[in-house]
Write a structure and sequence with these properties.
By secondary structure, the chain is mainly α. The chain has helices spanning 2-17, 24-38, 47-69. The N and C termini lie close together (8 Å).
Length: 70
């Protein structure tokens, strides 16, 4: 648990230095929007767009998951 806290602290420090702010409500909302897109019957009609959506969704879920572990 201490390693996780240290890693998150370093990540947050790095993001702050780069001017990045972790906005949990915005991340959660974006996850919901992307999930809704993946449920659309037309989602896979554009493979490149679908892959981008899935990649973003994966990254956001990982960030939120790390935050939720604290």
């Amino acid at each position: 648990l201490e390693d996780l806290k240290k890693t998150l602290t370093e990540l947050l420090k790095h993001e702050k230095e780069k001017g990045i702010h972790f906005d949990l409500p915005a991340v959660s909302e974006r996850i919901e929007v992307l999930n809704a897109q993946t449920e659309s019957p037309e989602f896979w009609s554009d493979q490149q767009k679908a892959q981008k959506v899935l990649k973003e969704l994966k990254i956001l879920r990982q960030k939120k998951g790390e935050y939720d572990k604290l």
